[in-house]
Amino acid sequence: MIVTTTQSVEGYRVTGYYGIVFGEVITGINFLKDFGAGIRNLVGGRSKGYEDELLQARTEALAELEQRAAELGAHAVVGVDMDYEVLGQGNMLMVTASGTAVTLAQA
């Protein structure tokens, strides 16, 4: 499955559109990660716990997007966009991937 932020795939032409597909992940941030991030906020530095959580959520959202496109019979997802949102009291993170599922043929 080709997944790209561009509207086309070099060397291919779009032969069919299956509509917009999404992959969504909502994940909780635990107390220890919050505490560690709060300390880093005061003294500076990166929050490895939050970065790992974000990477995992992004990976899962893209995998779900690919799965939904494949179920439609698509070869690729073009125009992919990633959105991030903090939910609740700041202890929930939502990551959404969206794009257009398409079929491709060699140009």
Q: How is this fold's topology laid out?
A:
Layout: E1 2-3, E2 12-28, H1 31-43, H2 48-72, E3 76-87, E4 92-106
Parallel strand pairs: 1-3
Antiparallel strand pairs: 2-4, 3-4
Oligomer: single chain
Please report the total strand number as a whole number.
4
Termini gap: 17 Å
Biggest sheet, spatial arrangement of strands: 1-3-4-2
Mean pLDDT: 86
Given as residue ranges, the uncertain stretches (5+ residues, pLDDT < 50) are: none
Number of helices: 2
- Helix vs. strand class: alpha+beta
Work out the radius of gyration: 17 Å
Strand content bin: 35-45%
Order of helices and strands: EEHHEE
Approximately how much helix is present in the residues?
25-40%
Q: Shape, please?
A: elongated
Sheet with most strands: 4 strands, mixed
In short:
This protein has 107 residues and is α+β, with helices and mostly antiparallel strands. Helix content is 36%, strand content 43%.
Relevant terms:
4-stranded mixed beta sheet; 4 strands
Could you characterize what this model shows?
The chain is α+β, with helices and mostly antiparallel strands and 107 residues long. It has 2 helices and 4 strands. Strands 1-3-4-2 form a 4-stranded mixed β-sheet. It starts with a strand and ends with a strand. The mean pLDDT is 86.
